[in-house]
């Protein structure tokens, strides 16, 4: 039982540390910030670009940010195992 409680505490601490992680990607004036909970915290667009260019760059920024934050979280996971 105590092992289960200890594991729950470790999971809570890990979840808290994940939520503090943030990744920021910026390309051609378009910026995206994603946190460790995979929530988008910020999107800034560049009005000087066409709508189509903004959409493509935004998609690329989001995909890159998700991959990078996943990589950071995976590196933190071995400490739990």
Structure characteristics:
single chain, alpha+beta, Ybab, Chain: A, 2 helices, 21% strand
Explain the layout of strands and helices:
Blueprint: H1 2-20, E1 22-27, E2 30-35, E3 40-44, H2 51-76
- CATH architectural name: 2-Layer Sandwich
Number of helices: 2
Please tell me how large the radius of gyration is: 17 Å
Order of secondary-structure elements: HEEEH
Main beta sheet: 3 strands, antiparallel
Distance between the termini: 18 Å
| Overall mean confidence score, pLDDT | 87
Strand content: 15-25%
The low-confidence parts are none
Overall strand count: 3
Structural class: alpha+beta
CATH superfamily: Nucleoid-associated protein YbaB-like domain
What best-fitting shape do the alpha-carbon axes yield?
rod-shaped
Kindly state the percentage of residues in helix: 55-70%
Stated plainly, the CATH topology is called: Ybab, Chain: A
Strand order of the largest sheet: 1-2-3
Provide a descriptive summary of the structure in words.
This protein is α+β, with helices and mostly antiparallel strands and 81 residues long. Strand 2 and strand 3 (40-44) form a beta hairpin. 56% of the residues lie in helices and 21% in strands. It starts with a helix and ends in a 5-residue tail after the last helix. The protein has two helices and three strands. It has helices at residues 2-20, 51-76, and strands spanning 22-27, 30-35, 40-44. The chain has a single domain, classed as 2-Layer Sandwich (Ybab, Chain: A), CATH 3.30.1310.
């Amino acid at each position: 039982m105590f092992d289960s409680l200890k594991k729950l505490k470790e999971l809570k601490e890990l979840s808290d540390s994940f939520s503090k992680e943030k990744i920021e990607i910026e390309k051609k004036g378009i910026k995206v910030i994603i946190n460790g909970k995979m929530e988008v915290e910020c999107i800034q667009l560049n009005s000087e670009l066409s709508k189509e260019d903004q959409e493509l760059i935004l998609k690329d920024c989001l995909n890159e940010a998700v991959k990078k934050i996943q990589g950071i979280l995976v590196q933190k996971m071995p400490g739990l195992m």
